[in-house]
Amino acid sequence: MGEKSVQKRKYILETARKVFVDKGFKKVTMKDIVEACGISRGGLYLYFDDTSQIFMEVMKMESQEADDVFSDSITEDATAADILFLFLREQKKELLRRNDTLTQAIYEFYFQSEPVKKGNVLKRQFDSAVKIMERLIGMGVEQGGFACEDCRGMARHIMFVLEGLKISAQTIGITSEVVDREIRFIMKSLGVEVGEESLG
Known about the structure:
The chain has helices spanning about 5-25, 30-35, 40-45, 50-75, 80-95, 105-110, 115-120, 120-145, 150-170, 175-190.
């Protein structure tokens, strides 16, 4: 794929993301994306077959961008506790960003059909995040910064808490204070006290 094609594909995905944020997943058609991008139908089908394929690529792009932002924020001398705390603060920003999130579209996408559930990208991302979190907690225990007897169980617990907060943010609504309370609880469970001022 040439540079021009790469840029065009990126433009389509960035534009499609805005459409999915506005309308969710179920209501979006290829026509919506064509109109938002200002390209021909043929121009869109040159890159993508359907809205499911576009949405999966949008999710991958979003995940990669979030990973890049997070990685760039980690200093060389950061401890496992620093990294976990930074990760949780990034999650807080995401949770409180109500108007510019794909969460509703993601849940619609995964409830829509059986074939998608079989190749569930969301589950793979969740399982991968649990493994990374488990390694991070294990590293923190080795460094003496965390107290934890079951790193895998704690990693799963953290990811389930975050998943629950995502749903709550979209349904009942959550405040900064609610997220801060959960972050403090997670850190305290690992033997780390977090002051009010550091949650930002």
